[in-house]
Sequence to fold (111 residues):
Amino acid sequence: MTSGQHLGPMPSEVAYAAAKAALEGVTVTLADQLANRGIRLNTVNPGPVDTGYLTEDMWRTVAPMFPSGRYGEPDDPARLITWLVTDEARWITGQVINTEGGFGRWRPRGA
Fold:
């Protein structure tokens, strides 16, 4: 799992951004090294997902940046990850997949 640092800045989160960027950076190399063993490797950026940490102010501020007006729920990225381990996704490897529910960093934040 990674975050969308390559999609926009994260003010005050330099160490976090660097760590997540490293995951993205090694995805292709690791996938290449594991392919001959029949192992597929991908990285998923789930976007903002409400795992119980949100305050009302956080929700109000960021929810308008989603076209659906809601944060992701844990089941949203879990469905993608579940699919990625099936044979239906056997051709997918070495990818960073953004599944942010249309999250738009360019959309105005709520008040």
About this structure: Helices lie at 14-35, 56-62, 75-84. The longest strand covers residues 43-45. Residues 14-35 form the longest helix (22 residues).
